Fold these 2 entries.
Entry 1:
Amino acid sequence: MLRFTAERFVGMIVTMLLVSLMVFIIMELPPGDYADRYAFRKYSGTGVSVTEADIQAIRVELGLDKPMLLRYFDWIGNIVLHGDFGQAFAFETSVTKVIGDKALLTTAILFGTLIITYLVSIPIGIYAAVKRASFADYGLTTFSYLGLALPNFLLALILLYFANRWFNADIGGLFSAEMKDAPWSLAKAGDLIAHLWLPAIVLAWSAVAYQLQTVRATMSDELNKLSVTAARARGVPETKLLIKYPARLAINPVVSTIGFDVNRIFSELPIVAVVLGLTELGELLLRAYLDLDMYVAGAILLLLTFMIVFMNFISDILLAWLDPRIKLGG
Amino acid sequence: MTDTAKPDRDEAQRLRYYSASQWTLIWWRFRRHRAAMVAATILGIMALMGVFAEVVAPYGPTSRNASYLDGPPQLPMFCDRQGCSIRPFVHGIKTERDPITLRAISVPDPETRVYVSFLARGEQVRLFGVIPTDIHLFGLDHDKARLHLWGTDDLGRDVFSRTIYATRTSLSIGVMGVLISFVLALIIGGTAGYAGGRVDGGIQRVTEVVRVVPIIPLYMGLAAAMPPEWSTTQVYFAMTLILGLFGWPTLARRIRSQLLSIRNEDYVVAARLAGARPSRIIGQHMLPSFTSFIIVDLVISFPYMILSETALSFVGLGLRPPSVSWGVMLQQAQSVRVIEQTPWLFIPAGFVVVAVLAFTVIGDGLRDAADPYSEAR
Amino acid sequence: MTKALLLSGGAVLALTLPALANCPAVTVADLQGLSPDYPQQFELAEFEAKAACDLGFAENPEIAALNGEILGNGALPPVSERLPQEPLVVAPYAAIGSYGGTLTGLSRGTESGTSDLLSVRHVNLVRYSDDLQTIVPNVARSWEWNDDFTKLTFTLRQGHKWSDGAPFTAEDVAFWYNDVLMNPAVIEKAPGRWLFDGQPATVEAIDETTVTFTLPVAQPNLLNRWAIDYGQTFLPKHFLGRYLDKYNADAAALRAAHGFADEAEAVNFFYGNSDWKDVPSPLMKDADKVAAIGTAVMPTLESHIVVEENTEGRHLVANPYFHMVDTAGNQLPYISEINEEYVPEREVVNLRIMNGEVTWKQQAMQLNDFPLLKENEGKGDYTVALAPTLGQSPYYSFNRTHKDPVLREIFSDVRFSQALSLGLDRNEINEIVYLGQGKPMQTAAAEHVTVPFLSAEDLTDFTEYDPARANALLDEMGLARGSDGVRRRPDGKPLSIRITFASQGTASQLHELAAGYWSDLGIQVDVREVTSDEYRAAANANEVDVLTWKNDGVSGPNISQDVTDALFPGDPFNPKGHADWATWIETDGAEGMEPPAYIKRLFEVAGAFIKHPLGTDESNALGAEMMKIHLDNMIKIGVVSEIPEPYVYANALKNVPALTAKAYDYYWTYPYRPQQWWLEQ
């Protein structure tokens, strides 16, 4: 087990390096750079005619003129060695300041969603598998698929609309106006939860649909195994039988994808966040990317991807522990 | 793959049963799964509607009716104040603007009837892009008037017709995307899961890198990098390719972990000892043990493909007019105005839900049918 | 010291005079027989004389608390000492308001869609009255031109103070121009809009309240700039000057103590790079530094000052030294606080409005949301009204300097633009996109309701829907149709164009419709939506087939003193493309692309146009010629004009007049005096 963990750990480091390179490439994909935008911001409406030389000067000033590989090493070097994520051009401050406490809120949203997803999808998935092809099964499936079939933007908008119409909910934001600037307290945490349920439902709905189907499918497979039939024949009580064999195995694929669930949820976060007025990293990422404010975008992407890689590492270890056959094979 | 067939079956049928191939057996069993058959029929109808969109849809996807903007669905009826008729008809319609809210409001004129006819003559179209025809499944008897079963959008385009054309686009993109990612996943996941060790480790890293990158910025980056002069057809194919190229890791990782967990099962070891080629071991011995799993994953990839298409549209990499897909249509429905004033623009969402559900139920049926023990229950 | 003496002297004087009656609460609705020199406002002496009264001053009861939120401000002196000796007396529209409350408004982001709320707190030396015809005093009490329009003298208000209580004087105006704008150590490149024929003006502080602008060339319409511009021509010398070696012997030590490497960095931290006011404030850039320095933002003369800023929004409180009072002597603004929240998504903006969470919103409100908002008025307790707009009419301008020589030649042929103009069914567009509220019309380089030399009748050519004639024109050009019905270019390729647009500029439905009409003419049209930044970048880089945006920036007061928007390449926010022509003209033919004769003439005429006072015969003749060049060569294809747009205000918000026009060209709310808006509690 120790050797397996060590091997996986090395693998994780390698992945993180590759990921950082990938993130950097994504940062480089859109044509143009912040020098153009900066020149535009700086001079537009002032009647100054901007020449290519001016833009080049800005580029040098911002350090954007260096070759790509050099910039990559500068960037990742500063992060690893000094924890310095670079400049947030559009906000004219450092990336760390812009991201700041948003990271915490984003993590809260992600994990809140994740917990809801698992709490709902695993028991219901098992139930649906046991009652397969029944009215309950199809009803639950249909309902969960509604979350998957409607684009998240639309789902968020519709929920927001009806939450507002029927329950007079606040429109958007993570805190009510009076709590926004208050120091952290129990009341503020309560306020956060009161605002968090809507985005969490929107985000969890589609994730639930996915996991529910996975659990249901694996569970169905396991239920059909001879071991289950044999156990049933031996007269093992149904509930105990379910928990002892198939349910444990049915969770296996769920565990193996925790990291990617986080990614999937985060991928949908920006759009939901825009609608629900959440000021968190997903929305900031989208904005930074559109603004070509690349170090902000890069930092967010990097933090997220590192978190996912780390969670995958944990899930690998967990999986090996749940199902030792994998470890032996590896 | 033997079976404990009931002894009371007559001899001929028994013989047929024993000599039937595995896939024939699956088909037989699938046929008995009623829900799955219903789902397959629905999906089949959808596919047919898509294939014959030009004839099924009364109007073209971009054809406009300027006198019926944001018009509600029209229900053909048989009776009105003037009495009943055998042929269904609709009332003539005028659009007026509310003087205060400026909202376009359609006012039916109960005095005029316009009759619905089937196999009506209408717009000139080319079936499959080749065969010229002006016959449509249904239409109105009148030259000017139009029948809008599901209403119209803000440009006065027929929602029914657009949905039919969208069905074609979305189903084909979904299917192609799923196929591409399936093939990739099979190769990559299969190799990793079977080989294990270093190969697995290397592939794992690559898979992980592709998977951990959030999709939206990646799409946005690709959107920016895609040549702007591409035609809508090129964009369409590029999209299926991108969807396929980024859709494989989920499936690959699952195939791999399943393979890993069974590669030391006795029958696999036995096959390996007997000198079977790796591709045969994977294809013949290992994969069938979790076929249903793959099927479910394939089925479940489908809505993701459709939704990814929507996401692509959102960031400007998606389809552009005059192309129309479910994603594009829902994109246009994303406003408070639509929720409150023209909810019929959400009809394509129903198609998405139905299609996705149909795939699930079919997946279910297939799982049962593919499972050799299911009969024993 | 002298000031205190003066004040006490004044007080003594007031006491010794025979007691006068209380002043009447004059409003715009009921002027009580008074007729101000300028519409809707008085100078204090003028008011007291005309009403034969003595105006006492009152203040917002919360003002001390609000002042406490302004980092670095000391305790407040009494209101009479905070106001200038000659405050501006403003007649409220409907009623004398009461103090308090928070105005909540929405912007898209830190630097996006913010000018709506910027205009709410805006001040400048002068202002346009809500008739959009009369320039009236504001920060300046008066102004005077010399005979040949080369010297402009402003008289400021005695005893006017910055929001930190320091005196505001003519020195602050001179400082803005001489020590910041024209100081290469602070701003590398002097902004061209404050150069005149390439020459700087001479800005001198004659005495405490007199400042002169001496111009190298006649600029008869320049006063307009102070009336409509976002830029304020004064900066706190006492505040920024202390970082400059020129004014402070210990500047270097101060800069070091505050953590600034040089003069430019210090000025930039508070001011930014230009007169744009929505740049991130020090609060955003470096809150720690702000805490160390002890001042959050530079002092202001505006009605409200920023006290908080983060990535979610800004918070402002009333300026305790603001220079206006109402006719009852209450210091303005009435509204204590402004909450600016960033909401980038249009649908969420709509929901927030419908939910009654927005006090004021007009920028970026679109006509096709009007029915929805109107139907929900009651529930959200707000009013949504339509206002005429200036500069909202969309246009198409084909790129006559296209990189593809074949397309360049086709687009340069005026028949092409004429044909495409005839191919547009403007009535249908008006009905579908603009709810039938606009008027089908061509577009020239001026907003016709704001200038005397262009009328709606001049804008009717080629506006009828006539596909037959359009096809004939295209056939005549030799663009024959292929077997697939698509016209072929001279090199045999299908004639294919792409409309690249941003929905901030023009509505997507418009382009979908246009693409349809033009496809019917045998032209392959592809529509692509991009962000506004991408659109501007593409247009400035000469990478679009057709420029399409709303025709803003061309109202009379604007083009009469800054003709950029009537020419090429326009301003970077509203690019008109064709940068190669401009380069050719700027470099006398050394670089760029030689423009056709009519463009050369257009530049000539435009140069002469701004040298004549708007409305004179010379100005009208030159203006008319500019318009004729635009129309004869159909540089822009106009679609629909005079489109009204909605604006929204909470029913609790009082003293809001019906907007004469919703226009950035007059700086949004600036003519409607938001300082006298108030909130009914």
Entry 2:
Amino acid sequence: MIRVDHFRKTFRTGFRRKRSVAARDISFEVVRGEVFGFLGPNGAGKTTTIKALLNLIRADGGSLTLVGHDVRSMAWRSAVGYMPEHPNFYDYLTGFEVVVWFGRLAGLSRHEAEQQARKNLERVGLAHACDRRLRGYSKGMLQRAGLAQALMGSPQLLVLDEPMTGLDPIGRRDMRDLILALRDEGCTIFYSTHILSDVEMTCDRVSIIHQGVTQRTGRLSEFLSETEKVSVVVRPSPASGATLVERYALSEMPDGTWARDFEDIDRARAFVTEASALGMDLLRFEPRRETLEAIFMRALGTDSGEKAFFAPDRKEARSATKL
Amino acid sequence: MRVIGLIAFNTFRQTLRQRLYYNVAIFGVGMLILSMVMGNITFGYPDRVVRSIGLSGVCISLDLIALLVGVGLIHEEIDKKTLFVVLARPVGRVRYVAGRYLGLVSALGLALFGLTGVYFLTLTAAGGSITWPDVVAVAAALPEAMLLGGIGLVLSAFSTPTLSSGIGFGLWIAAATSDDLVRLTAKAEPSVRALTTAVYYALPSLERLNFRQAAIYGQHLGVWEVVGALSYGAVYSVFLVALASLILSRREMI
């Protein structure tokens, strides 16, 4: 449905036409029927890539195709629904009128557009406010209206730019449920975000980008299972041997128990067998998966990740704001 | 055409929601009332005074609406990112620009309709009768405003409304006076003459669409003279829409 190969983009901004690299080498592919998460910190190049996919900006290099067509053609447009990060429509129109208008732009007749608008507004939880002008909508309601208009024309592919931004917890849950429901109906969903918990709950595959470069792409389940660890906690017995503690490099906890995270489950099993033979009580044997956040931070090339995630380099943050 | 119509109708509604539209229209009505007052206190030919001030009021009001609304037509949509969603639909930039422009022209047509009604009432109240040159003079106000709206649209495709307004007002004055400038500099140095001639050819000549003097002094107007002027306005407007489309097609939506 989407294919991006070695996409590059540099903007020239300001009076001096200073170069600002937004995308250095971004590649990924989205297949039919999946929910694809496009992850990256602020300024990573997510919105730039989405804009290039929608032909709002031109790529400096690489190729981009949407629903099997070059992004510069008009052929894909009736098959794609797009929701921007902060939807801002005509505030003098009601929610219903806006959604009908976009439906008609998508090629629907007035009757079809009105029918679909009612259905979609109800689906996004705006049925009660469909006759209210958009100027009276909250940020979350505008977000929902943005999704309702994106659904007009029953697109095969939905491109959502930060769809969870500005939503309260209930709104986020509703959005997640809707994304999953749409996938079950056969719609392909591509969305950018940096809210990792939403990704874990909705995405089939993800691509992590940082500083305009694709760091990793793959199935979310593979990401999470490849780094499984086993956490073992035992209570020592009078017969506990010091060699066992040394050999397995156990750590003594403040409550007097001994603990260790094993990367290899067979080694963990071997330790438990030996510990049981020495009369130790097994308090915990818990396989633990690395969180997506940890994987994300690792892909970004930082252990704590906090620097890259929450406080990107100032220069980059400035260019990100412009993008 | 369907998509252009949808965008035009939405732009028409959008323009009618702007306070600016009504403020300028009220200014035009004020000018017409002033023309009646001035006509009453002027010795002789009160209808000429009404025509002079009244027609100027109609044209200036319409030109102001065209320019001030025109300079925000595209930029505002880029600024609010509404355009991104519109262009993600099977619309295309050329059809989008054409729709925006036609919406503005429709709103100008409505404003002209109202102002013409008030002008004719004022003229009749001042004892004047509605003549063919009067009709031509008010009708020609629309292509004149369309040209300025087109200039606004072109500026709006690459510049902010504030900067566009400044440039637009400058171009308005230059376009309205380019004929006079060429005449005045006929005996000036070659470099000055070359400059004024360049301005004359580079900008639309609003003087070609000015039939106000003919209406004030009751001069004869040939049909072909009128058709030629209106065609000039129409062709130039199409050129400006094409130029705005070209600029927007090359523009990156950052």
